[in-house]
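User: Please predict the structure of the protein below. I'd like the answer in structure-token form so I can feed it into my own downstream comparison script.

Assistant: Understood. Taking the following sequence of 133 residues as input:
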Amino acid sequence: MTRSWIRPGASRPCSLVVCRGCCCGDARKHPGTDHAGQLDRLRAAAAASGGRLTVRTSDCLGPCGQANVVVVQPSGEARRRGARAAWVGFTLDDDSLDEILAWVDAGGPGVAEPPAGLALQFIDPPGRDAARR
């Protein structure tokens, strides 16, 4: 199915889903993080990407103890080859954003290996343990 925001014949780009629910993006929980600045930076990167990255926000994604959570979704082409979304927790600083953006710039999940530091921040999505049983 072709979505209206994708040119016919074009592959869906990598996308970032930035949690901004009850804990993620909350200055009371993480007062040392510029939550609005993080989101502005990601949106600016998407705008400059020439359509290779999209960014959207979501209400609570679930793993509140690992806030701030960003889900890095593979491009449509990578997903067709079996790539799956990567859930990144504890994205509270510029280093985390640098690594996410560098990974997406290199192709993201299923195309490029994540930076080693970023891979240490990968978390299981809610319900994954139940799905394995």
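That's the full token string. The chain has a mean pLDDT of 88.
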